[in-house]
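Form 12-C: Joint structure prediction
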Amino acid sequence: MKTIEIKGMSCQHCVMTVTKAISAVPGVAKVSVSLEKAQASFEETSPVDLQAVRQAVKKAGFEAGAEK
Ligand SMILES: [Cu+2]
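Section 2 - Result
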């Protein structure tokens, strides 16, 4: 499982948006986003390009920080 920091989320709607965005990245499964911890965790069914995850988060209007 991988976990990355997500900046800019303020409500459950943001959580939904980030969850959807990360879920669409190839190889990603079981996305779990925490508003309190400001992070997103996911499983990999195949190696995931973290840059693609960051890009997807950015496109959705948020910022992905460091991997935890
Ligand atoms: Cu929100």
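Section 3 - Comments
The longest helix spans residues 12-23. DSSP finds two helices and four strands in the chain.
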